[in-house]
Amino acid sequence: MKHELIVKVSCIIIKNYYQGDCLAIEKMFRIWVPQTFSYKIIGMDYDETTHTLYLSRHVDIAYLESLLGVKARFDEKYNKPNHFIHPLRLKYPPRNEKQKKAMNFLVGGEGYDYTSRSNQLYLGLDTGMGKTYLAIFYSGYISTTTLVVCSAVSWLGQWADAYMEHSNILSSEMMNLGGSGMSIDTIMSKSKEELSGIKVYFMTYASLCSYANKHGWNNLNKLFIHLGIGLKIIDEGHLDFRALSLLDLYTSIHKTIYMSATPARSGEEARIYKNYFKNIYILSLHGEEDNHTHYVGILYHSGVTSREKISMYSNYGFNKCNYANIVSTKDNMYKILRIILDSVQNMYGRKLIYVATNEAIMRVYNWLQENYPEYRNNVGIFTSANKDKAQALLHNVILTTVKSAGPLLDIPCLIAIINLAEPIDTFIQNKQKMGRLRAYGTYYFDIVDIDSDRPYNYYSANLGSFAKYALSMKEVYYNNDNLDRISTGILNKRNMSVPLSSKIIRE
User: Fold this and answer.
1) 134-169 pLDDT tens trace
2) Spatial distance between the Cα atoms of 298 and 335, rounded to a whole number of angstroms
């Protein structure tokens, strides 16, 4: 039977397709997994029952036509969206030319008239450049019910806060779907009239997949028709690329904006990611902001034993959580922390400390309580374990994890980040951490345990990338003797109530 090639609003469908019909197409979106001796499919999907292959809308159509020997049929109908009865308006104008440029790109304004005809756009901005502000702007511009999809539950509240900060939206006009919000099955039982006042829905990839796995991906579009979704905003979609692609392949939403501070992928997935977005209109403003943060790499010996090094690894390789739980029991880590806290003592502003687990965070918290009376009532824990996370951001010292402090998090008056015990292998996440710092002259302290080979390897691999974004680069090494001497000197001065030096880190 002859193939049918149908181009839809957010995907391409090939009907009458049997696996193996065209390996050139299949190879674009599959990865060989040696552990399982099988291929892993990402960025496309195949329905064995209906013999239908689903592909990205951005695969080259002429190329598919030549491979299959058929002409494409365009069917770009989309779900009828709800429109705002009362317009959503921004409270503040764009703060710089880059935001104005991004606005023009989204709406098809000056220099970007071609984007207005596209159903899908990709906007890449570095952390701190106003990614959420621009998403909110576009949501108001097209005045249609919006779905924001992101990776972590904690980000949902951050998105809601951002909408109320930057626009005239009311809390009653927003709703979380799934997870801690209203169950999707419940919302499907409500009438469209009951939902007519909702302008923005928030949803995680996990909730999305849970619903689709229960009811079938083919039924996902019924949910969005019921809600009247006319715009979906994909926040940091590279973090769950499989869910992102399935959402595109099985729904027909009028407009989609993919937004990412760090869109890159690694390994074989980078090839698939590139194929998926091959022909999409992209505005990348990465690296266009002025470098404003001093980077300081601090190398030291934690003193972990050989047995402890082995326990840092699982069947899946190096485990940063195991590492954090072990290194947080070592005196040398706290000596390093004492030196850094001394160096920033005279800087006005908040300090954010990254530690990989709640267990290790509590050790650091207790150490601060015991050794720093001035912080006793001024240390916040920003993790899922804390029911009052928002209050934690008001403290002078904040303890958190990479997962909890997502890309949307904006901490006022943040002057220093201490990456104490959460080694990250990819520069993508490292850059996100550094991107928490907004002001000129801030500091990022990267604590590197050279007794544990993997954290040091991560540091070495990412050092060149950090250099592109940092205001200055510096590396400081402490052997055990120097670490003991300087740490003890600071401790003695504190006990004698001598004013603390702010220059020790530079010795």
Assistant:
1) 999 999 999 999 999 988 787 888 889 889 999 999
2) 12
pLDDT at 291: 78
The shares of helix, strand and coil residues in the chain, as percent rounded to the nearest 5, are 40, 20, 40
Q: Could you tell me which residues come within 8 angstroms of residue 214 by beta carbon, excluding any fewer than 6 positions away?
A: none
DSSP classification of residue 81:
P
pTM for the model stands at 0.65
> Which residue type occupies 426?
T
Task: List the one residue out of 243, 192, 250 whose CA is nearest residue 220.
Answer: 250
Residue 473 has a CB neighbour count (10 Å cut-off) of 13
Half-sphere exposure of 65 (CA within 13 A, CB side): 9
Q: 430 vs 269, 274, 422, 465, 469, CA distance in Å?
A: 19, 22, 10, 10, 11
- The closest alpha carbon to 174, from 164, 186, 183, 184, belongs to 164
How far apart, in whole angstroms, are the C-alpha atoms of residue 248 and residue 176? 20
Question: What domains does the chain contain, in order, with CATH numbers?
Answer: 4-74 (no CATH), 97-284 (3.40.50.300), 293-506 (3.40.50.300)
What one-letter code names the amino acid at 472? S
Within 10 Å of residue 396's Cβ, how many Cβ atoms?
A: 15
Gap between the Cα atoms of 154 and 404, Å rounded: 7
DSSP state of 218: G
CA–CA distance, 135 with 167 (Å, rounded to integer) = 11
Distance, in Å, from the CA atom of 383 to the CA atom of 400, rounded to the nearest integer, reads 6
Instruction: Strand 52-56: give its sheet, edge to edge.
Output: 45-47, 52-56, 11-15, 4-7, 73-74
Instruction: For residues 326 and 318, give the distance between their C-alpha atoms in angstroms, rounded to a whole number.
Output: 13
Q: Strand pairing of 255-260 and 350-355?
A: unpaired
Residues in the chain: 507
CA angle 210, 213, 219 (to 5 degrees): 105
